[in-house]
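Translate sequence into structure tokens.
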Amino acid sequence: MLKLMIKFFLFIFIFFIKIIFVNAEIVESISVKGNERITDNTIIVFSKINIGKDITVNDLNKIIKELYETDFFKDVSVNLKNNILTINVIENSLVQSLRINGVKNKKLKQALLDQLSITEKKSYVEERSSEDVLKLSNFLKISGYYFSDVDLIVKQNDNKTVDLIYNITLKQKAVIKKINFSGNKIFKSRLLSNIIVTEENKFWKFLSKKKYLNERQIQLDQRLLKNFYLNEGYYNVKISQTSANIIQENNFNLTYNINAGKKFFFNDLSLILPTDYDPNNFKFIQLLLDDMKDKPYSLNRINEFLNEIDNIAITKQYEFINASFNEKIIDENKMNIEFVINESQKLYVDRINIIGNDITNETAIRNLLIVDEGDPLNEILNNKSKNNIKASGLFSNVDYKILDTDNEFKKDIEITVTEQPTGEISAGAGYGSSGQTFSFGVKENNFSGTATKLNTNLTINSKSIKGGINVIIPNYNYSDKSLKLNLSRANNDYLSTSGFKNTVTNFTIGTGFEYKQDLFFTPLIVFEAEDLTTDSTASAALKKQDGNYNTIELDYNFLYDKRDQSFRPTDGYYSRFNQTLPLLSNDYSLSNVYDYKTYHQLSKNTVSNISFHIAAINSLDGSDVRVSDRIYLSPRKLRGFEPGKIGPKDNLDFIGGNYASSASLSTSLPTLLPELESIDFNIFLDAGNLWGVDYDSSLDNSKIRSSTGLSIDLLTPIGPLNFIFAKPITKASTDVEQSFRFDIGTTF
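Result follows.
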């Protein structure tokens, strides 16, 4: 029996050997036939067959495949006989010319040409041309030309070339007339409209591209809406298929269908560590987790915990770890979260390859990376690097891949970027109770391809003309810190209110960086030259301040931002401290400013906020604080009073104070009627004071000012409009009231 089995397996083995090597011959010569444009040697190279090698049936099939993949040939056949390999080809026609008809806009035409895989002087492949037609059609839809048609005409020439003619019937862009949110019973439609990218067509948005029907943009909107609901506690939210209904020619109503489901809350949140890790290193994480019990579910909160774990891992040099989380629903609306830290395989970065940067210097991109060649391969640092590149605003897409190498302990990083326009021109005009304002600015976020941000601006109003140039160089000299440069000049005329006018030239140099999670530090050196002139009716004490001043200052601030979102926050807080310290000056004054604001969601559509402001400026050399440096409380911090017309007064001039403080409580009002969703109503209570005069304490008035009122914000055809109705409760006898104030403006 054993002998029989051995014979059987030998038979099978020999059978397969014969299949593999049957008809195998040695290629002694290669003959190419049918080619006119492409040389024999080129075809032989593409075939990847060498003379003197054995060749099988499988090899012949590979030759055909390799030659087809070049796109040079319409037909390929091979024959092996008497050790002679014959390759027969029929060449594809060459594209002699290519044109697009029906599109006059040069930028759009060039964008369409960029979509084509078949271009002039390339081989014409029928299948590829069909794909190109589809590409053009999809691109037109993405660009807003939803009902446009694309037809391809292939013109055969006598010289075995073709002309490709793309005839495009360019219809009007499909615009969004109205955006609806079906099933939304929780949040204001206006709030949701501000979250999505797509906009309703309004005549003042004639430059906006977001008003056109765009499938990719709508898909992005769906993701943004889902993330918003997830961060508000609605774990099972579903954004079903969005519908676009035509209401008239090229005008659509767009509806996002939302099913929020129940609101979920965190229950137990725990942290699982490897057995050899010191729990003391993760005490801060555990405190955060304990504090989140019974709070609404939020994906952002979970990511914050993961970021904190990342920061601890980097600080404590846990280079080879990864953090994940597991969710478990334990009740109809409660969630347990388990954060798990695991050790990962020890890997290192071999090479970093960057692709797609035609404009941006490779060095500028590498400056954004946290990892470098030779560093440990760490998922945390990789994510930070990828996010840094995305956050630069230079690229519409960033593809970050980890690739295998010949060494099992080393990996390559391949970063593919898609560049996008980074320049911006803006202009604006506004009108309010305090007068007219005009502004103009030019911004470039990738100057000379170095990721350097360059911003120029000019603002003109009834009291001042201001202009400046601002430059920010990220990761300067590989320091992970930005270099900030600013040059500005301002002509201010406050003779009618504060008894002085001045011309200020300012040059600033400094840096900025994230000191730790959500804590930002910005130190600056300021060089300032001021020409100060007081009014002829000013007091003798003020007239003494006439003259030229040259100052060198150290200006720095700390900002701690824990808001859930920068636009219309509903939870969290931010805290900011700024200090200006004179180093060399004609007079020496120390300035300190502290701001704090916290947000609390009282109900679905009601958010309250409490803010505090404290400011002080003091002379360090016994001289009087310059009138232009003194504190003037903003009308946004104390409503109900005219700007610059409260506090100490010298003759007819409001001269500001050495100290200021204010507090404000504001609460939004729920919208009772759907017609009023585009309007925000807020009631407020403000209190504040401005006091302190160096040279004459009798001018001081320490009375606390207070006011209450209603603010209304709405969007109009010419821009955002803000109304403030305020009634002072307490005031000083010299203060000037302002019961009503409005501001309106737009950009174009």
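Note: Residues 427 and 748 are 6 Å apart (CA to CA).
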